From TrEMBL:
<dbReference type="GO" id="GO:0005524">
    <property type="term" value="F:ATP binding"/>
</dbReference>
<keyword id="KW-0963">Cytoplasm</keyword>
<feature type="region of interest" description="Disordered">
    <location>
        <begin position="119"/>
        <end position="144"/>
    </location>
</feature>
<feature type="domain" description="Helicase ATP-binding">
    <location>
        <begin position="311"/>
        <end position="467"/>
    </location>
</feature>
<dbReference type="Pfam" id="PF08148">
    <property type="entry name" value="DSHCT"/>
</dbReference>
<dbReference type="GO" id="GO:0003724">
    <property type="term" value="F:RNA helicase activity"/>
</dbReference>
<keyword id="KW-0378">Hydrolase</keyword>
<dbReference type="InterPro" id="IPR027417">
    <property type="entry name" value="P-loop_NTPase"/>
</dbReference>
<dbReference type="GO" id="GO:0055087">
    <property type="term" value="C:Ski complex"/>
</dbReference>
<dbReference type="GO" id="GO:0070478">
    <property type="term" value="P:nuclear-transcribed mRNA catabolic process, 3'-5' exonucleolytic nonsense-mediated decay"/>
</dbReference>
<feature type="domain" description="Helicase C-terminal">
    <location>
        <begin position="568"/>
        <end position="745"/>
    </location>
</feature>
<dbReference type="Pfam" id="PF17911">
    <property type="entry name" value="Ski2_N"/>
</dbReference>
<dbReference type="GO" id="GO:0003723">
    <property type="term" value="F:RNA binding"/>
</dbReference>
<dbReference type="Pfam" id="PF00271">
    <property type="entry name" value="Helicase_C"/>
</dbReference>
<protein>
    <recommendedName>
        <fullName>Helicase SKI2W</fullName>
    </recommendedName>
</protein>
<dbReference type="InterPro" id="IPR001650">
    <property type="entry name" value="Helicase_C-like"/>
</dbReference>
<keyword id="KW-0347">Helicase</keyword>
Length: 1234
């Protein structure tokens, strides 16, 4: 390019290797200036690449990053102190509440109410705390605190009130914080403390006068005068000062007006709480529809009186307890509560004792209301519904975990409340009733029990709300009870009525049954009313065939046959395979329904032997129902029975707890059952519960109950007691569990002692608390007025003398009762023995034993002739006389000498009233003496002179007294009565030493000794009564407190809680587990489960859910054997800890784990079909299914535990194990939920 031709006076130079050109000045002589920088190279002023790389690798310190001036920058911050004074805006203290008519919903006005103060997050017990995550709204979380239980308002009051204490600022201040090992020490300070008296600061002095009115601190005069009292008296007075309370209730001042509104009745002898109100159901409710014009739910039939009364109280937002017979219509009350909650846009929880009943109720209520949910261990359906049906254990878990469902809960329905008598699960009912918040109303449905008022009174006292008891003995369909003695078709007419529809026991029917039995044998001796011998098993088939023929002939089908043995049920069903009770159309209907029910099962499961056998039985109209049957087959049987397609149903007593499934007839195969410990007759409550299934309301005029007399006819008395006796009372089965203790210990405001105090078992001890508090206040005032006895003699040793007298008299009575029950003493205490009597009516009076008898309480009572003053009657000692245990001074041991003329009396004394059994005996005519005295006690003969026998005995006694005024020699326990018990001999020696010490006391020389002794005795009694009442109001009086302390020690040894009872990580994990929480937690923390395969984990944990004692021995793999040994080792360790802490164990802890299904569960988790795993054991199919279902719940609990401790490996394995076992027929959907 010719740049000169263009008139350009610069050149272009190519730089680098990228083809870039830059302009350069043009020089005249530019021949030596290159037009390119390459390949000539860079200018000499720039370093080469190699040099730069070498410097970078060899001189690292010269890298720019190490240059502080360029790498580290500092930006100065400007101080803004005003930011420290920033405060969040306080929340509003009041809210506007709408006031509506509770019945019609009409708007009445508005009112302003104060809001409760709430804590942030999950640590508040208030319903106003923020809701939790959406995933925890139903089940809650173990990190949540439960909502404040109803009846525990004092908890919040305690948190807001200041306690009045006396603080010693030199001794009571802590230098080590709770939970810390070390703290601050002030010993090294150079400043020497001044020598002065410690200053006690009373916080009450800092309070206003209005606050002081809440406490009874005594008046000024009493305090001033008490300064002069001696040390002991001051000690007593310090005990009655206002103390720091150990119980939540003692910090609450009783508001009398409020308590009166809640049903507290104040009587002359103290405050008495009556929370149970009995409702009259004998008179009709005439104005029912006027009082409730717009019912929340209406039925097509007319309601009974008890149902109307219950609905009236539900409309008033009141809790009810409905006790009625089976099939009486108790469910109507529950249905109306559900309808009310839907109307009020709140929620109702319906609890049942068993899962099967929950499924049945879900189907029933869903057909009625539609919006119904179901929550069980493995099924959750429509959890946002207005009505939730669940087992009581699920509700307990929701309460402990602070479920948000509780916020909207208006009603909780407890069905089958008499199940609280169950020894294993009855405690759950009590826990739930105690933990329910105040805003939740309670509906209790139960069979007839004799102590409904007592139970309702306990609930009302616990929840501080009245419970209205509605109890009716009316049965919609009367029952007729029969004895059946037939054995073949020829004798099938031997049906004898023994109790008619009016509950009259017919002796004639019973005698006819005996005669019928006698006619079947040549000898009548084998058929008497022995009641314990059953019939021969081979004759069962003929008996049942004759029974069914008789029922069919009398049109008494369908029938339920209660049999108390699963094996016997299966045998009876097999014996009747040839019996056909259904028509062709019924067989077709059964076939269609059966196959539609099992069509969702896999083809191999549809061919299970039990399924095929059940199909053939059902087509003949025969059903079987017990725990060994597959759940889906039990549901098929129940539904076909409801359709009257099952004519005869062989069942265990669990069927009597189902929904309303009445039959026309109930048959008892036997009236004896095995309750797990022994064979016994049925209790009246059990018999009535099962017999109540007889009689269909609206279809039958009477229900028929038949008892089969296969062997001997039961005793008449046993039948009468069983059929017409009182049902079993509701009794507390409350017991402490580790889960309960840990769940309550994690909440600072709730104490285990308060849970125990509110249990039904403590009801009788706690119901008089208000009365005791009034009495304590009165005693407090009386003790404050006690003054020391001003006497220079009595002030020396009167108190010690009184204590010695009390010990002497107590020990003497105790020894007399023991010694006089000795055979040698009984032999000596015959008619004519002279004794010395001392009690509240006799003081060292001489008497003669005339006769001895045994009282009702197995205590020996002696009839004696006693010497006394004439014309002075002596009270008989047959009744317990108040004050008979009072302390009297042991000063005068001289015998009583009557004033002339001498008298006598006939009295009855006990062993404790005999102070001395003398060596003297008098020959007397005992019968004549007793007859003579009894005769002269009649008004007609009262002026007659005593007989010769009485006069002789009296004169002999008087002579003995006059000649031995200082006392007669008594029988020596060792020499005369030949006692060889070392402890008794030592106690007699102690008694003699105490008696000898009485002569050395100075107080007995006081001229006013008697008055001073009585005054001191009265003061001691006041103080003892005060201490006794304080004990009754304290936690130490709780029966379960020792066991609670022992269990806490076990938890501390196992590191579930620390020394301050704070729940540790192991305790938090145990709260997540619902079954055998200690064992499973130990397995998790010992890392035993993490090393196993998911199938092995499932097999190993099956031991905590399997309960059958006797089954075939499984064949276990080596890893399972190792895991089994680990479980037994941990169980033995836990047992050792429990025994070391003093717990009384019925059996060893390792006995609670059953390993019989480990092989079955292992193979099931590996994918083996159900038909094959049933061949690995003799356990029935239904029990296997129930075990695996419960195992799934346990695996889910362990999975949650792994999440808490942060173990992802165990969490993943638990998830895999759950998925492995959740398949096929074991987890087939319930027919009631489809």
């Amino acid at each position: 390019m010719d740049l000169e031709g263009l008139g350009v006076d610069f050149d272009l130079a190519e730089v680098g290797c990228q083809g870039k050109f830059v302009p350069v000045p043009k020089r005249k002589n530019n021949e030596g200036f290159p037009r390119k920088t390459l390949p000539a190279g860079l200018p000499p002023i720039l370093p080469s690449w190699g040099e730069e790389l070498e410097d970078y690798l060899t001189c690292i310190e010269q890298v720019p990053v190490h240059d502080l001036n360029s790498a580290q920058r500092f930006w100065p911050r400007e101080p803004h102190p005003e930011n420290l004074y920033h405060a969040e805006v306080s929340g509003v203290q009041t809210t506007i509440q709408v006031d509506r008519n509770p019945t019609t919903g009409e708007l009445l006005g508005y009112k302003e109410e104060y809001l409760e103060s709430t804590s942030e997050g999950k640590t508040s017990l208030s319903l106003r705390r923020p809701p939790g995550p959406a995933g925890q709204d139903v089940r809650g979380s173990s990190a949540n605190f439960p909502f404040l239980p109803g009846g525990m308002e004092e908890v919040e009051t305690m948190l807001s009130e200041d306690k009045t204490e006396f603080l010693d600022f030199e001794k009571d201040l802590l230098s080590v914080a709770p939970g810390m090992m070390e703290g601050m020490t002030f010993n090294d300070l150079d400043i020497a403390p001044k020598q002065k008296e410690p200053t006690l600061l009373n916080l009450a002095d800092l309070m206003s006068a209005a606050d002081l009115d809440e406490f009874n601190l005594g008046d000024d005069e009493d305090e001033g005068e008490s300064k002069n009292e001696d040390h002991d008296q001051g000690h007593i007075l310090s005990e009655v000062k206002l103390e720091k309370s150990e119980s939540l209730e003692n910090l609450v001042r009783i508001d009398e007006d409020r308590e009166t509104e809640r049903g507290v009745r104040v009587g002359g002898e103290g405050r008495r709480e009556e929370w149970a109100v009995k409702v009259d159901v004998d008179h009709p409710v005439a104005d029912f529809h006027q009082r409730i014009p717009d019912m929340a739910y209406k039925w097509e039939f007319e309601l009974d009186v008890f149902q109307k009364q219950a609905i009236l109280h539900l409309e008033n937002h009141e809790s009810v307890f409905v006790a009625a017979h089976t099939s009486a219509g108790k469910t109507v009350v529950a249905e109306y509560a559900i309808a009310l909650s839907m109307k009020h846009m709140t929620r109702t929880v319906y609890t049942s004792p068993i899962k099967a009943l929950s499924n049945q109720k879900y189907r029933e209520f869903k057909q009625t209301f539609g919006e119904v949910g179901l929550i069980t261990g493995d099924v959750q359906i429509n959890q946002t519904a207005s009505c939730l049906i669940m087992t009581t254990e699920i509700l307990r878990s929701m309460l402990y975990n602070g479920s948000d469902v509780i916020r909207d809960l208006e009603w909780v329905v407890f069905d089958e409340v008499h199940y609280i008598n169950d020894a294993e699960r009855g405690v759950v009912w009590e826990e739930v009733l105690i933990m329910l918040p105040q805003h939740v109303h309670i509906i209790l449905l139960s069979a007839t029990v004799p102590n409904t008022l007592e139970f309702a009174d306990w609930i009302g006292r616990t929840k501080k709300k009245k419970i209205f008891v509605i109890s009716t003995l009316k049965r919609p369909v009367p029952l007729e009870h029969h004895l059946y003695t037939g054995t073949t078709g020829k004798t099938s007419n031997e049906l004898f009525l023994i109790v008619d529809g009016k509950k009259n026991f017919l002796t004639s029917g019973y005698n006819k049954a005996l005669e019928a039995k006698k006619e079947k044998s040549k000898s009548s001796q084998g058929f008497g009313p022995k009641g314990t011998r059953g019939g021969h098993p081979n004759k069962d088939k003929n008996i049942w065939i004759s029974v069914i023929d008789m029922l069919k002939k009398k049109d008494k089908l369908p029938a339920v046959a209660f049999t108390f043995s699963k094996k016997k049920i299966d045998e009876n069903a097999q014996n009747l395979l040839s019996k056909d009770l259904t028509t062709a159309s019924e067989k077709s209907e059964i076939h269609i329904f059966f196959h539609s029910a099992i069509k969702k099962l896999k083809p191999p499961d549809q061919k299970l032997p039990q399924v095929l056998q059940m199909e053939s039985l059902l087509k003949n109209g025969i059903g079987v129902h017990h725990s060994g049957i597959l759940p889906i087959l039990k549901e098929v049987v129940e539904m076909l029975f409801q359709r009257a397609l099952v004519k005869i149903l062989f069942s265990t007593e669990t069927f009597a707890m189902g929904v309303n499934m009445p039959a026309r007839t109930v048959v008892f195969d036997s009236i004896r059952k095995n309750d797990g410990t022994c064979f016994r007759d049925l209790l009246p409550g059990e018999y009535i519960q099962m017999a109540g299934r007889a009689g269909r309301r609206g279809l039958d005029t009477t229900g028929t109950v038949i008892i089969l007399c296969k062997g001997d006819v039961p005793e008449m008395s046993d039948l009468h007691k069983m059929m017409l006796g009182k049902p079993t009372k509701l009794e507390s089965q409350f017991r402490l569990t580790y889960s309960m203790i840990l769940n309550l210990l994690r909440v600072e405001q709730l104490r285990v002692e308060d849970m125990m105090k509110r249990s039904f078992s403590e009801f009788h001890h706690q119901k008089d608390v208000s009365k005791h508090k009034v009495t304590i206040d009165q005693l407090h005032k009386q003790i404050a007025q006690i003054r020391p006895i001003e006497c220079y003699l009595c002030s020396v040793d009167l108190e010690k003398y009184h204590e010695s007298c009390r010990d002497y008299q107590c020990l003497r009575r105790k020894l007399q009762e023991v010694v006089l029950s000795h055979p040698a003493a009984i032999k000596a205490l015959t008619a004519g023995r002279v004794i010395v009597i001392s009690n509240s009516f006799h003081s060292n009076q001489l008497g003669i034993i005339l006769n001895s008898t045994m009282a009702a309480n197995n205590e020996r009572v002696f009839t004696c002739l006693v010497l006394c003053d004439k014309n002075k009657s002596v009270k008989s000692q047959t009744e317990k006389v108040p004050g008979s245990e009072e302390v009297t001074p042991v000063t005068n041991t001289d015998l009583f000498l009557p004033e002339a003329p001498c008298g006598h009396d006939l009295v009855q004394v006990k062993a404790k009233d005999i102070s001395t059994v003398t060596v003297k005996s008098i020959r007397v005519e005992a019968n004549k003496i007793m007859d003579d005295i009894k005769k002269r006690q009649m008004p007609r003969f009262k002026d007659d002179p005593p007989g010769k026998s009485v006069t002789t005995a009296t004169q002999e006694l008087l002579r003995m007294v006059e000649s031995n005024i200082h006392g007669l020699v008594g029988l020596d326990p060792v020499k005369d009565l030949h006692l060889r018990d070392i402890d008794l001999v030592e106690q007699f020696r102690s008694l003699q030493l105490i008696e000898d010490s009485f002569r050395g006391y100075q107080c007995i020389n006081c001229p006013h000794f008697t008055e001073h002794f009585r005054e001191h005795d009265r003061n001691v009694k006041l103080k003892e009564e005060y201490k006794h009442l304080k004990f009754l109001l304290s936690d130490e009086s709780l029966m379960l407190l020792p066991e609670y302390e022992q269990r806490v020690q076990v938890l501390k040894h196992l590191n579930y809680i620390d020394e301050n009872n704070a729940v540790q990580l192991k305790g938090r994990v145990a709260c997540e587990i619902s079954n055998h929480e200690i064992m499973i937690t130990e397995l998790v923390f010992e890392n035993i489960l993490t090393e196993l395969h998911p199938t092995e984990i499932a097999a190993l944990l099956s031991c905590v859910v399997f309960e059958q004692k006797n089954c075939s021995e499984p064949k276990l793999a080596p890893e399972l054997v190792k895991g089994k040994d680990s479980i037994l080792f941990i169980a033995q360790k836990i047992t050792a800890h429990q025994r070391r802490c003093g717990m009384n164990l019925v059996g060893d802890y390792e006995d609670e784990f059953k390993f019989g299904l480990m092989e079955v569960v292992f193979e099931w988790a590996r994918g083996l079909p159900f038909a094959e795993i049933t061949g690995l054991t003799d356990v029935q199919e239904g029990i296997i299914v129930r075990c695996i279902q419960r195992l799934h719940e346990t695996l889910r609990d362990v999975r949650n535990a792994a999440r808490i401790i942060g173990d992802p490996v165990l969490y993943r394995k638990m998830e895999e194990a759950s998925q492995m076992i959740k398949r096929d027929i074991v987890f087939a959907a319930s027919l009631y939920t489809q």
